[in-house]
Amino acid sequence: MASGGRPASLREDLTCAICCDLFRDPVMLACMHHFCRACIDTYWRSIRGPVPCPQCRQEFPSRHFQANYLVAGLVEKVRANSSDGYVKNVEKQVKDSLESHRSKVMDYVQMIHRDKEQVESLKRVGAELQERIHGDFQALHSFLQDEEESILEELRREQEENVEEFQLHVVTLENAVKQLEQDMHVLQQQVNIMDSSVLAELPEVISRRPSLQVSKGPQFDMKDFCSKYISPLQYTTWRKMFFVLKPGPASFTLDEDTAHPSLSLSQDKTTVTEHPKRFPYPPNPRRFIQCVNVLGAQGFQSGRHYWEVEVGSKLKWDVSVALETVDRRARVKLCPENGYWTLRLRNGSQCSAGTQPWTPLRTVSVPRRIGVFVDFEDRRVSFYNADSMSLLWSFSNGPRGKTFPFISTCISALGEKPQPIRFLHHS
């Protein structure tokens, strides 16, 4: 084996200095150099007497060497790794590794482009949302400013009218006082004369002078005046704001022609209650037959719409948006694939969104009023807890085509008293 100070490769270390090839049946001399057994035998065969090491020239009195099986094993590994099959296998691994790296580079570059596009989309959508939010609040600000100015103007006008009435009354009273003082002065002068003839005429003079009468003044109640403006002003203004909301809460009614025969509708068609008996509704192809469902009477297929449904403390219900084309005679899952965008409650606490499969929702509390928002332009259907306006679930693949509000009271458990569900009206 090589023994210089120069670093050498393993193959060089395992190369015979005589045949310049990898060792075959390697043996080690006393000087620690290695050679092929056949090579050293041939080399020493022509020498008489002490034999030298072909590398370091150290002489040995006898032709003695020993096999080195460790080196022989290393040689076999190097020889195996130098075969054509091994080289081809290494080349294949290198090519596969390069291809894998090249594929990853392409994937990462695509991800970079996609992320950059997402960043640009996020910035664009964020700007659009900011503009929309600004516009929505600007409308509210304008309404509140107009309402404030209107109320302040009404207060100013009413205050001026009442002040003017009191001031006119004060002037009338002052004139009356002045007239009375003049009459008193005349009377006093005549009394001072103390002439019997004049005194005899005084009663007739006094009776001929008209009696001066002044009203008690304007009828004004400070308590009533203040109550008008100290009343729950914020609440009354909030109620008026419903007329400027876009969309404002819609006042929907229920369509009796779609109601399942076991559903009872209130006279104003805003409330639905499950009933143990079936009502003799006339046959109608629009009526739900299999499930206790009912549609709203008002449909829409464009714009933005919002309404609220009061579910109260019912233990189970379905509130949905349904296409006009839904199957009324079959029992189907209330999911977008079947024309429904649904929020449901089961067992009094398990709230879920109507996806495939159902998506359980984590809610702080079970909602008693559900707000439903449909935006046809964005194809979005969203459900809210109407008491806190916290978002419960939003579908991004909203309906295309004519759509109606949908309610299912669900079948009550045995012994459970059916409770109503109703559309809320904010007028």
Automatic annotation (TrEMBL):
Segments passing through the bilayer: none
This protein's GO CC annotations: cytoplasm
Main location: cytoplasm
Compartment(s) where it occurs, according to its Swiss-Prot or TrEMBL record: Cytoplasm
Keyword annotations from UniProtKB, A to Z: Coiled coil, Cytoplasm, Metal-binding, Zinc, Zinc-finger
GO molecular function per UniProt: zinc ion binding
Family under the similarity heading: Belongs to the TRIM/RBCC family.
Protein name: Zinc-binding protein A33-like
Source organism per UniProt: Denticeps clupeoides
